[in-house]
Amino acid sequence: MVLLRVEGADDPRIGDYRALTDLELRTKWEPPNGLFIAEGELVIRRALRAGYRLRSVLVDEKRADQFADLPADAVVYAATPEVLESITGFHVHRGVLASFHRRELPSLAELLAGARRLAVLEGLNTHTNLGALFRSAAALGIDAVVLSPTCADPLYRRAVRVSMGAVFAIPYVKVEDWPGALKTISAAGFRLLALTPADDAVPLPELTAADRARPALMLGAEGPGLTRAALAASDVRVVIPMQSGVDSLNVATAAAIAFWELCRSPSAG
To answer: If phi over 0 gives left and psi between -120 and 50 gives alpha, with beta otherwise, what is residue 89?
Structure first.
């Protein structure tokens, strides 16, 4: 690796890492410039294993040796914790950040061709919920994720961190044609299952074998849920049975429960 010392936030070489806490600035800067930021050694190494191309690493100078195994041309910037904080806008308690090149996303048709179980997300704009949902999807058997145009960026630093790098393990696509994309998903042979607390919703454990064969679980944003258009496009409205008068769950929690139910082996009972 090429180890370079950084003395201050005005160093022109570390522009990728400036003002990481400014959500509006980062969302305007990162996708158009084809980059994303990963935080923590575990997540960074998962991005590398997934084949994302490294731009650079920014590390606490005391931890620079942790990356001695990087390729000879990998650029590693080292700085004191104080300088790291002045650059990023927060205390980098994991001690390391890395900038990666984004990859071109698959088309919806390509994504559907390689999947049996889908998560279809509408309007999920909270990065922590999105990251947690991706982690559950990867862990519990969901093959791919479809995002509406109003969903948050799965490669935003907070989403990547909360997912523990699971956003690198599961393919996804962000579609522009919404809710038109739901017709495409249905035409590809998926059963659109809309998660909703509606009175006419079918309890998840009562879904038929046909419903479970190629499920596309639809989830809406925290609070408003799925839009009327999305609900109208669904094949079945489904609900998680709950007790003690509770009528809803955090969307990431609800997703995990529903993923487990849809992906479990029939022999599991």
So the answer is: left
Residue 268 predicted with pLDDT over 50: no
Q: Specify the residue for token string 């690493």.
A: 57
Q: How far apart are CA 63 and CA 60, in angstroms?
A: 5
Output the average pLDDT for the chain.
Answer: 95
Q: Where are the domains of the chain?
A: 2-101, 108-268
Whether 108-268 and 2-101 are alike in CATH topology: the answer is: no
The 10 Å Cβ neighbour count of residue 267 is: 5
- Which CATH code is given to the segment(s) 2-101? 3.30.1330.30
Helix H segments across the chain?
23-29, 41-49, 81-88, 108-113, 127-140, 157-163, 180-187, 209-213, 228-233, 251-263
pTM for the full model?
A: 0.94
What does the pLDDT look like over 19-68, one tens digit per residue? 999 999 999 999 999 999 999 999 999 999 999 999 999 999 999 999 99
Q: Which long-range contacts (CB under 8 A, 24 or more apart) does 226-233 make?
A: 226/122, 226/194, 226/195, 226/196, 227/122, 227/123, 227/179, 229/179, 230/122, 230/179, 230/182, 230/194, 231/194, 231/196, 231/198, 233/179, 233/182, 233/183, 233/186, 233/192
Instruction: Tell me the CATH number for domain 108-268.
Output: 3.40.1280.10
Centroid of chain to Cα 111: 16
